[in-house]
Design goal:
The chain is an alpha+beta fold. Helix content is 38%, strand content 15%. The chain starts with a helix and ends with a helix. Residues 12-23 and 443-515 have low confidence and may be disordered.
């Protein structure tokens, strides 16, 4: 049996059930044969080259060894003394013998096998020139087949360490850091362990001897966070910590209507629950408001956390709707601190509880699907009478499962139906938020600003807003169905799209035929195959109305007609739009934006098209389905009051928002994915208009 076969055999044994005495004997035999291997590389290291610096000498020797499958390291460095030049002595990394510094009974191994290879570098008397002399060019072991995972060539260079530190402060995952390093340097031999070790070394140095709590408090104070804490009266240990970023609080004061509150776990080494408080904008985008680490989930702790949140409001309007799971302590604390807010229960948590309790009893898939369908119909009951009828239908479906119907009534329906059934919850403006699952998603996608609590590092990052797909299951649970109404296809990023106004342009030149390819790249990637063409319009401040005119088959110069029609829509249904916009002042602002008809100059910024304010106006006035596309967020607007024609007669138009200051007309093919429907349409549409969405949500 030759050496290679012996190695393969030994490796198979080590991968089997476990180590044995025979395995150890076999491994020792391989090591002994390794010692008997002689590899002479004298010729490869023999050279008359003169190196112009010490570093160039080191690089040449190590690169030559690496190409041969050996790691060459510096054994000793001798400085200049009288009568002697500076010298460097190199050896194989497997040279020498291991000498333990402490006594131990544990059986250990070592890579050192007293390899005799030696090379000496000598500095010449003139300048900084160096030469090489081979002392012993023989290795007593075979070369390595590959260098990946070897600790010496896998070390990070100074530039790589700087990149690792930069990416770590941006909360980039170690595996992504390693990928970035290998893209920049294909010869990089580092492993994931190298990245973790380098990060740990950096964070240890960053702490500068401070305790974890000292690091946390100094970070909060340095970055301007608003924070409160509670300590144990006896031990003076921190028990509860509330913190919020000032920008998050500004956003909350602007959108105080809905709060989503939920706790998550396993986020820190101290096993403290993390309570996350999330707000929702009028366009259904979520943003983090505050975070609370609590040592216990009791009424006192929740009340303290919500009092801290309340203290940051400074007299502003309180929340109208609070969505939580069925955490009784949190529900009681919410009632105490915000008594005027309507309390809703998270439907997703209800579903998970029902799944765990009822699924084992209903083993037949057909029966389960019938129950699940009827349960959802019950939740979506639009009136109390409809609820009573749907409940009777549910009892018929579960007639063979009396225990389940009793569980549903006793645990959920009788005490809490007003908190999650549409017949009661739709009386309040919750913007479609009847689940706290977004809070958990927000924690995963958007880690909290204090990521160092989990990973012992200081990462300063302001909380951001995110938008997610509406009303759909998780991606992994979705069926791959091609449909125009695949609203779950879209996943969006942060931007202030609820302003959606055009910033100042440098000029209003009549030359406006920009590259449509540059425009296409600014739309969601999934729509690119469905875009037939993009038509640019004149960038004079009327571009949004020009794009709508083109979509309707008119010339873009008919922008004034579009403005007039939208003003007529706004006046005719003033009461409804005041309700949608939230105030008379907002209605007046939209009216003033539309009221511009000058032909001798471009429209000033206060008269530009704004979204989402004008989206429902356009869809309702012209009885069309309007898609508004952008890199940040895309929405679909449907008519508010009309009875829809048959689906094949629906007219869909699309405009795109590009460069953060310009609208263009976009032509999409049939069967393209449809952006999510604007949430305000769901709340403010007339009953007769409900069927507009039917073909797209089936």
């Amino acid at each position: 049996m030759n050496l290679d076969q012996l190695r393969i055999w030994a490796n198979d044994l080590r991968l089997s059930s476990g180590s044995s005495d025979q395995d150890d004997i076999l491994i020792n035999e391989i090591k002994q044969e390794d010692k008997n291997v002689d590899e002479d590389v004298t010729n490869e290291f023999s050279t008359d080259m003169v190196f112009n610096s010490r570093q160039s000498l080191i690089d040449w020797i190590q690169n030559t060894g690496r190409n041969l499958g050996y790691i060459i390291v510096i054994k000793r460095s001798e400085t200049s003394i009288i009568g002697k030049s500076p010298r460097l002595l190199f050896q194989c990394d497997r040279g020498g013998t291991y000498r333990s510094q402490k006594t131990s009974t544990k059986v250990t191994g070592t890579k050192r096998i007293d390899c005799p290879f030696r090379v000496k570098g000598v500095k010449m008397r003139t300048g900084d020139d160096w030469m090489i002399r081979v002392v012993c060019g023989t290795h007593n072991h075979a070369p390595a087949s590959y260098m990946e995972g070897h600790p010496y060539p896998g070390r990070l260079s100074e530039s790589e360490i700087q990149l690792m530190v930069h990416l770590s402060t941006k909360n980039v995952k170690p595996r992504d850091i390693l990928t970035s390093l290998r893209k920049r340097n294909p010869d990089n031999m580092s492993t994931i362990g190298t990245i973790y070790n380098a990060r740990h070394k950096f964070r240890t140095a960053e702490k500068a001897g401070k305790t974890q709590m000292q690091v946390v408090m100094s970070f909060l104070q340095r970055e301007g966070y608003i924070f409160e804490s509670q300590t144990n009266a006896v031990t003076n240990e921190l028990e509860d910590l509330f913190f919020a970023h000032p920008r998050s609080l500004e956003q909350w004061r602007a959108f105080p209507h809905v709060l989503l509150i939920d706790a998550t776990y396993k986020t820190n080494r101290y096993r403290m629950p993390l309570l996350e408080i999330v707000g929702v904008t009028a366009t259904n985008m979520t943003f983090c408001i505050a975070f609370v680490f609590m040592h216990s989930e009791k009424v006192f702790n929740y009340t303290w956390a919500l009092r801290c949140l309340q203290s940051t409001m400074h007299g502003c309007t309180g929340p109208r709707v609070i969505v939580t799971d069925r955490e009784l302590a949190l529900m009681k604390a919410s009632t105490q601190v915000f008594p005027d807010a309507k309390k809703l229960l998270c439907r997703w948590h209800i579903y998970r509880s029902i799944l765990s309790k009822c699924r084992p009893s209903i083993t037949d898939n057909k029966s389960w699907n019938a129950f699940y369908k009827m349960w959802n119909m019950l939740l979506e009951s639009e009136t109390e009478n409809a609820y009573v009828c749907k409940l009777a239908d549910l009892e018929v479906v579960l007639q063979n499962f009396p225990g389940i119907i009793n569980y549903l009534k006793d645990v959920w329906l009788t005490p809490y139906k007003e908190m999650f059934v549409s017949a009661w919850t739709d009386r309040y403006l919750h913007f479609g938020n009847q689940t706290t699952k977004k809070v958990a998603t927000n924690t995963l996608v958007n880690p909290s600003p204090l990521v160092f609590v989990e990973s012992d590092s200081l990462h300063s990052r302001e909380p951001s807003r995110n938008s997610y797909s509406f009303g759909g299951p998780d991606l992994k649970d979705r069926e791959d169905i091609s449909t125009r109404a695949n609203t779950n296809t879209f996943e969006f990023v942060e931007l202030d799209i609820f302003q959606f106004q055009e910033p100042a342009r440098h000029s209003c030149s009549s030359i406006y035929n920009y590259s449509v390819h540059a425009y296409v790249r600014q739309f969601p990637f999934i729509l690119h195959p469905y875009i037939m063409h993009v038509q640019d319009v004149k960038p004079d401040g009327n571009c949004g109305f020009r794009a709508i005119a083109v979509c309707l088959g008119l010339h873009e110069d008919a922008w004034a007609t579009i403005r007039h029609c939208l003003i007529e829509e706004l006046h005719t249904f003033r009461t409804q739009y005041v309700t949608i916009f939230g105030s008379e002042d907002q209605w007046t602002r939209v009216y003033n934006s539309l009221n511009f008809f000058a032909l001798d100059r471009g429209a000033p910024i206060e008269h530009w098209m704004t979204m989402p304010d004008m989206g429902l106006l356009i869809a309702s006035k012209f009885n069309v389905i309007l898609h508004v596309l952008s890199a940040a967020q895309s929405f679909t607007y449907l008519p508010l009051r009309s009875i829809p024609p048959p689906a094949y007669q629906h007219v869909a138009i699309s405009i795109g928002y590009v460069n953060n200051n310009h609208y263009v007309q976009v032509a999409l093919t049939d069967g393209c994915p449809m952006p999510p429907i604007m949430p305000q349409w769901v709340h403010f549409r007339h009953d007769c208009a409900a069927a507009w969405a039917t073909p797209y949500v089936e």
